[in-house]
Please model this.
Amino acid sequence: MRILVISDTHGKCERVYEVYKKLVSETPVDIIVHCGDYAADAREIQARLGVHVAWVKGNCDGAFGEDNWSILETEYGNFIITHGHAENVGFSQQNLYYKALENDCVGAFFGHTHRGVYTQLGDVYMMNPGSLSKPRDGSGGTFGLMVTTEDSVWGKIYRYDDFMDGGSGSSTEKKKPKVQGGKLRSLLNYSDRF
Model:
């Protein structure tokens, strides 16, 4: 399964359409995952592109309950989809890691921080595609691509500018990623809980 992973579009979807068009010119995209902020964007993307979009609500959609996540089934295993604010991903990915384990998931897609990351905690693949419209990492915008088979998972974060200019666009690509912890700066600057 070839999965385009996006998040935090905040009403600006033009770059999503550009990326999708370029991706499908090479190989079809089976599904788009939208990790929240804004849910209306996910519905618009699905209607315009005619490809299924699995989406969740984010904090800007008013999602603060316990049911703001879903499960995506792949041939490799299940992936949890969440925005990440309820799991406090701006500080640490540990809460989301445990939520993935509790729900028998091999991976997690999340957003909220507007910073792209692809890593592995234990046996759980963790991908935050960052934001194509409002990046907070100086990248000019990022998105993720995840490819699953029965036997493997491959993921990569792409920088929009590099990808559209024909370069590899790679921001991160890891087969055995290092574990990343939370950062005090992220807690203070990007947490909705303060």
Remarks:
- Residues 2-190 form a domain with the Purple Acid Phosphatase; chain A, domain 2 fold (CATH 3.60.21.10).
- The CA atoms of residues 19 and 114 lie 17 Å apart.
- Residues 14-24 form the longest helix (11 residues).
- The chain has one domain: 2-190.
